Amino acid sequence: MADGIMSKAATMEIPINSNGNTGTLPEDDGLEQAAKLQWRLDEKVGSCRGARDLQQVMVSGPNLNETSIVSGGYGGTAEGIIPTGSIKGPSMHHSSSSSSMTAEDGGRGVAVEKLETVKKWGLNTYKCTKQMISERFGRGSRTVDLELEAQIELLRDTKRKYENVLRLSRALTNHFYNMVQTQHALGDTFADLSQKSPELRDEFGYNAETQKLLCKNGETLLGAINFFVSSINTLVNKTMEDTLMTIKMYENARLEYDAYRSDLEELSLGPRDAAAVARIDAAQQHCQVQKDKYERLRSDVTIKLKFLEENKVKVMHKQLLLFHNAISAYFAGNQEQLEQTLKQFSIKLKPPGADKPSWLEEQ
User: Is pTM beyond 0.70 here?
Assistant: First the structure.
């Protein structure tokens, strides 16, 4: 129909008068109506094509950042073009909000976990402090293993005595080292005087040789005493200290067990409603956990005390024999026996000046 109207309008003749103005014909109104009808049809066709293009774009799924939406009719101006990169879909908002919610939930979970840990620590500290005060004032009951307590007290007394032996042995080492240094200096002085005093050369020479021999034997005895001190230090400050650390853990476990046990006894004397029964069940579970921990550490302490006693006897037997033989050989003037004692216990002496830095290290 549109093609027929256009062909008709194209074949119509427009008369021109003598002044060059177009005349008014009856067909003018029909031509104007035909032009308006053609414009409306073109607009509808453009709208249909735009809808089909938009549907095709949505189906094919192009890159949204590189497409644009045309507002208005088909063939509109560029003023109606809106870049789709500036349009944020609901999925983008949902993804960002969900990620932020996940981060908030994670942070909230960590905070709750820390809060629960602090709460448990505070409750446990309160119970243990209450139990400790009750024991000191004689109002609370205390779990006691008489045999184990006696062994622990004996170990602490033994450690104090061995610390005294270690202190005195170190003092002996320092004093004897000073004496050896004095003998060395005195021997050098006698040797120098024997060279400068011809009338007393032999007398100064004898004394110089004697002091040098005493100095040599003294250095050998110092090696034996240092080995004795090192072994006692290891026994006291490492082996015994390790056992005492286990004993401290055992005593803390005993205090916690008594605290939870006393709490369970107090709850058992109260009313037996539903809430109280639930609290009693929870207290029984906590008490059983602390009891298992206490018994495990008590077993560890018993085993360590046994091995410590065996190790102490073995070490002290060797060290006391070394100390006796070395001291006896030195003051008897038996250099051969003194050296044999060091070989027996596999003690190697450092050569003179071994502790001094070399000339290259001093530069």
Answer: no
